[in-house]
Queue: 4 jobs
Job 1
Amino acid sequence: FSVMGVNTRPISTQLHAAADYVPKEGEGKINLLIDLESPKVANMEEMSSGKKVFCRCWLSGTFPLCDGTHVKHNAACGDNVGPLIVTVKSE
Amino acid sequence: FSVMGVNTRPISTQLHAAADYVPKEGEGKINLLIDLESPKVANMEEMSSGKKVFCRCWLSGTFPLCDGTHVKHNAACGDNVGPLIVTVKSE
């Protein structure tokens, strides 16, 4: 992609990446609650032992950890989302 | 909650839990792709070292791991969801 020999990337690879992306029927915003001002909400978690339960419904009051709100969301919206449970196994 | 002295739980605590739950404006199904037949999609992951990047947009082709599809989803829907990155730190 070059203009007059100058390699110009599209404004944002996000937009470029989206050009060929067709949203699924019913696909809309997932995050209605968490850090809405942030361009992208990614979380880094370090673990050395034990188990943590992480939210994937974007509605938890203890985000990024799960607080069970997905049960209410699923019942209200006919969804089936649940958490990610990560356990550290000592080698 | 009892009927003729017999303690009967509501059909499903999910429905009971949802009775007081008011979905946010725009809150609809999040999962349009993954194990749609399952009543609830929870994933258990064991880690002993290293780093894993987990999907939270429910659109990854490598679910429960992230494959970057959230970038296309965010651009198409004006969302800002991103992955969970878990790193195991040796004690």
Job 2
Amino acid sequence: MKQLTPERLLDVAYDEALRGLAEGGIPIGAALFDTGGTLLGRGRNRRVQSGDPSMHAETDAFRAAGRRRDYRGTIMVTTLSPCWYCSGLVRQFGIGAVVVGESQTFSGGHKWLAGHGVAVTVLEDRRCIDLMSRFIAEHPALWHEDIGSADDLEA
Amino acid sequence: MKQLTPERLLDVAYDEALRGLAEGGIPIGAALFDTGGTLLGRGRNRRVQSGDPSMHAETDAFRAAGRRRDYRGTIMVTTLSPCWYCSGLVRQFGIGAVVVGESQTFSGGHKWLAGHGVAVTVLEDRRCIDLMSRFIAEHPALWHEDIGSADDLEA
């Protein structure tokens, strides 16, 4: 039996990011697991594909997992440091752990979550860094739209 | 011409809350306006109606407003103090102002937002307080599910 490691969980989120890229979307993926490694839901950023600014990868994975009463025994895995919106999701619903693919191209609320008792693992995975670096370089306006950084749009 | 007041903006969010209640849902409504009072999007909690735990009222109103590049000149109006998830949405996208119907039955991140430069107005509107008070008393498990308070479920 294969060992349950953060890196193996990240593979699922990374696959979602690649699917998003192939669709012409912003390549950020996420997945929600239970602590036994069972996949509860997976998703990706759908701003471009669905014209839906509320569907960040973590939110899409959370939605895919359906209604649940208790998230303490769940792990949110995301290719990129969760923004404040997605960090708020993790905090409000008491998701117990977060695995972050990388926090080099964008740093959201993962340290804030760690300070509120969430078990946070940051992998600084090379594939994730390269994927987002390329995307941001090629599509800066779309990226800034996705994180609400209007100041950068005007630069 | 009618004056643009927080109370008038709240009427739209309250109407959404009543629609949600009539649908058998959690009665929380929200609306996004520009500073001139133009309605950009309105929505309500859809956990019950759509089986979608990611559709809090503020998120639904944000989604209904579609893709935008700059939220600084927008006002999010909600019948209830925004939870961490919805507060994170406001912070990440730089929504400039928040009007809160009430913070008596639940207090989320509205003070945190005020500390991060968001113009927050709390009305403590009697209709909103009564609506949520009744709902929580009648549907405590559903309410606790919606805010991720698993501890309360076990009590």
Job 3
Amino acid sequence: MAMMKKRFEGKVAIVTASTQGIGFSIAERLGLEGASIVISSRKQKNVDEAVEKLKSKGIEVFGVVCHVSNAQHRKNLIDQTIQKYGKINVVVSNAAANPSVDPILETKESILDKLWEINVKASILILQDAAPHLEKGSSVVFISSITAYQPSASMGMYGVTKTALLGLTKALAIEMSPDTRVNTVAPGFVPTHFADFLTKDENVRKEIEQRTLLNRLGTTEDMASATAYLASDDASYITGETLVVAGGMPSRL
Amino acid sequence: MAMMKKRFEGKVAIVTASTQGIGFSIAERLGLEGASIVISSRKQKNVDEAVEKLKSKGIEVFGVVCHVSNAQHRKNLIDQTIQKYGKINVVVSNAAANPSVDPILETKESILDKLWEINVKASILILQDAAPHLEKGSSVVFISSITAYQPSASMGMYGVTKTALLGLTKALAIEMSPDTRVNTVAPGFVPTHFADFLTKDENVRKEIEQRTLLNRLGTTEDMASATAYLASDDASYITGETLVVAGGMPSRL
Amino acid sequence: MAMMKKRFEGKVAIVTASTQGIGFSIAERLGLEGASIVISSRKQKNVDEAVEKLKSKGIEVFGVVCHVSNAQHRKNLIDQTIQKYGKINVVVSNAAANPSVDPILETKESILDKLWEINVKASILILQDAAPHLEKGSSVVFISSITAYQPSASMGMYGVTKTALLGLTKALAIEMSPDTRVNTVAPGFVPTHFADFLTKDENVRKEIEQRTLLNRLGTTEDMASATAYLASDDASYITGETLVVAGGMPSRL
Amino acid sequence: MAMMKKRFEGKVAIVTASTQGIGFSIAERLGLEGASIVISSRKQKNVDEAVEKLKSKGIEVFGVVCHVSNAQHRKNLIDQTIQKYGKINVVVSNAAANPSVDPILETKESILDKLWEINVKASILILQDAAPHLEKGSSVVFISSITAYQPSASMGMYGVTKTALLGLTKALAIEMSPDTRVNTVAPGFVPTHFADFLTKDENVRKEIEQRTLLNRLGTTEDMASATAYLASDDASYITGETLVVAGGMPSRL
């Protein structure tokens, strides 16, 4: 069978919110390309199950319960990673709060805060903990959203926090260069548990599909391959950039 | 003397953080073009002085002390405006926290929160209070920054919150249309008290000037004329857009 | 009646393709704000009629027949302007070829060339002629299109040439700074003769209206006020920028 | 040695201007990942040498002399590809005219035309020839430039044509979907023969390096890996997008 070199042999990758959905596929893809993986999410049961699934595919993997908005959890995630593997090469910050479906002008302050805290601030704080351990040549990948560029009426504030990530990508690319690259994937609509509120309705799903040029929703694997590309040395001249993976939905030039 | 029609006759405009700097110039410009102005900032003394200055130019003006991150203050600002003028036509959300000069990865959580709260959340919450009173044909203008597009190493997190405003502009434009337009001005570097930390140093100032194409820093009046344009009926077909006023510094297509 | 200062007193403005539609409204607006206007288009009859209409509104105006893709015509336009008024302060390059409705991959080479020649190259060549006569503080405005950012299936190649103008704006802003500013207006859909092929069909028009946030097509006056703003000293700190005037249609951050 | 699946087994890829520089590296990368390659450029000698180099690496390759602005050459390139391999899966349109270093306002009409013809029009015309032969699931990749987003004073018009490609990408993505995806790579500065005029001067090269965040110029391999990613099924949910590969030089959000 025709083969090419694995891109993450000898590398250690942390992926947050990775026991299902996009995060799980990213962990799986990086693992299949040779990385040692640290997966995490809020529930021990989910972590355990995901570890088993990845191990069954021959992936070197380690699971830590981590609610990213909890400072002690974040510290523990980094500490255990270092204890286990001794270094960090890739951080994929995938955790996000469930989108609020309320109009922004009807969203409670506590929900505004939660979206900010999980979607933006936690990404920063986890990097504050991880930064001292990042090897030269490391890579950070944020997961934004097509709604960062073209807001959806039904998930306005979620999109605003995802727009913030576009700026964070550029600012941290400056700050962490040249030793660490920082990039972002902006997924279109992917029918995960997370997006159930939209995609479980057949009509809404069809309507979204028709707004793409490729006549389908995204898959978690689509996002995993984009993340793997940006995190790999194939993208070693890319930093501060966002890659839209949205089936041709209107984005930006 | 050759003249054209004033654009804000009979209109009521709230401008936050308007007792000096860009906010003051915006209040002055809207007032000179006929608007009744509600100015505000955190200190009574500053409010009083600004009211006097604007009155001396023949502007109808009313001052309210308002710290935009204080819910009671925000409510009071709107209540007093309605009590005084009975309606709102223009809201210019200009308040911003002082930029943090620390790298993002060395910025304390409390500072991250403060930038979010004043630069983004307060803009939302004040509109939640104002929205029920906005007349048909109203206009909202946010003040972002060139650093929303091209981050500056010395004010990274400030820029991230300003990037968030670009998304907020689009999301609220959807939400508030067609009765209210929502747009944003993204100023370049303006040597106000606010930017003193950069522009008071002659060398830094010169360096910034050279990054512009027009070989000068911006003026508060440059931002005021842009805001007045976007808030006026001259821009009645513009919503969800950001206008960069930065002397030709690198921005976006 | 409440008034403000006219912005183009003592200024001379050339507007191409200005005997009807958006160009005519731009000429009218600049003229009403005090500019001496040079209008032009391909047919003497149209030029004569437009001159009469503008004169009847008290505008100082002068008409020259000019097909912008004709080198002699372009030279003549500039020569006559200088002979008549002695200087140039504003150039609005509005001429555009009729959109091709064919798919790009079915468009003949001659049509591709024509769109390039009129929409992009003529804008450059007319500036090559005009540049030596531009006063310090002059302003150039190109007319692009929302389709520069978000292509329409039915006018693909037209949009591509309009995308080129976004880059031309930036490149010439660099080249002509600091003495001349260069900016662009990107109109949405305006029901002029030019867009008849789209907007004369009631259903297509309604469909386009629904893609805006303001539930209407644009007017030629909307584009004229945007152009006047960018060309005026109100925008004296803006160069290299494009202003989208498209009723909130999807554009860019 | 750890390996992963080759991504272009059984695929046929045409790469224009591929006997040296970026084009050659793209051909090599696609070939090493299993594609049968059709290389081309203007000179038989260069074609022959490149074919030998690629063959020596075990790549299935076929060379055709093709000046992309020659209609007969373009037709011949496609005809010979079909005759040899029977289908087309990937088209990488890499040909570009040498940048003009003159200011746009001092560039002769013939040079403006040449840049348009080679950088934009030839890309369209070659696809008009290739389209009937593209298999379902094909991929087109254009090569634009960082100067499409942020013009360089020394290569203004070159950048304008590269900006046009950003729009062409979106327009053709609409037109060719869902069967063919269309994307673009926007390289930063790569010290090829093509960019010699800039990068052979040590001082200019250092100055460019300092404008990147990664403190180096790009390599042809950086562009090849980006092109391979976009052309592969790893990017099967990406169409109409441009990926900036420029070492963190200012681009866009």
Job 4
Amino acid sequence: MRNLLLLSTSTVHGSSFLEYCLSEVEKHFSGLSEILFIPYARPGGISHSDYTEIVEKALARINIEVVGIHELDDIRKEIGEFKGIYIGGGNTFLLIQSLYSNGLIPIIRDMVVNKGVRYMGSSAGTNVACSTINNTNDMPIVHPPSFDALKLIPFNINPHYLDPVVGSKHMGETRETRIKEFHFQSAIPVLGLREGSWLKIEGEKIALGGGLPARLFERNKDAREILDSDELNYLLKARQN
Amino acid sequence: MRNLLLLSTSTVHGSSFLEYCLSEVEKHFSGLSEILFIPYARPGGISHSDYTEIVEKALARINIEVVGIHELDDIRKEIGEFKGIYIGGGNTFLLIQSLYSNGLIPIIRDMVVNKGVRYMGSSAGTNVACSTINNTNDMPIVHPPSFDALKLIPFNINPHYLDPVVGSKHMGETRETRIKEFHFQSAIPVLGLREGSWLKIEGEKIALGGGLPARLFERNKDAREILDSDELNYLLKARQN
């Protein structure tokens, strides 16, 4: 049974890395003393080891040890030993390219979908858990071979979802406009997840956490605010692509 | 001799399409009674013909007729008859994918670089004039075969350049952070062009227009504000890729 914790962001303003959701992370990984961290998204260009150190410090507070995937000698062989995986945020294009170049897409998908390995993602790590990375906010700094992602869920999440700024004079597209442009190209539903929000997905049930509404975009429908998690369960039955 | 007008945006707040820069557009296309418009970027999902109509209305004020590329029977044959091309804004990924699928990348490049055809781009149309589309702000709603662009200039432009918002509590990356992440992957210089700004490029000379400074990002250097256009000419000698 799949068991996912998908965070819009790792950090909310004014608190430390994962601090705002640490009790939720603790519940998610309960019983595990060690998880695998995948630092490929490299926020701000940080090195794999420096990024892993930040996560180590954060999870030490709930007595979870962290192994960076770059520390493994034979990634595709050793990854199977872990019962929990966390993919951190940064640049989604760099992240998905690295997952492809290391041959990890089918392996991680199999671990999470068929073997009950617990998955956590934040920001870009949430994008890659979805059907495709078409709804990332990141800059396309590298060209990955495909935008198809891990497909742990059959819809997309737009993390760091932002409402249009009232009175803004900036002419760049709003987030809502961008997602609507996507729906001229695709029928994949997109859930806008505001900072401080997360989805907890167990089997066929979705719970929206963090106390904020999410915004759901579906092709040929008006966008709507979601407060009641139960309204989301049907998304798990959406067609992939 | 190449002759380009690259606009950060087609429209500034509170004025109509191309209104703010219409005298510059008039100079750029002076002597031409007709130009070709490429509406492939489809802002907000607008149709090719509706988008072309907006441009027709705007350029009628300076007595220039507009032909939409979708109106041509044999695009690759008939495009060679035009002496001016305007590629409009919208979604950069959709635009470059459409340029590739119609086989237009080498044709337009040849027209502008070798045959003196005058080029104008706004927003996404400015992104595709550059070396690559790696520095677009758009959402990757489709997966183009490559991020290589028309390479009419050997550097990249980030249109709608935005300064970090002082006091913002949003944790998404700033524009500057995103461009710095790019420079961990590439040595292509990136010029942040604020809304209301443009570059006019004639041969080996760049003029920055609109009265605002631009922000230049180069690998392994501090970002800096550019006020004097002459400082930019050396960018035309940058290595492609």
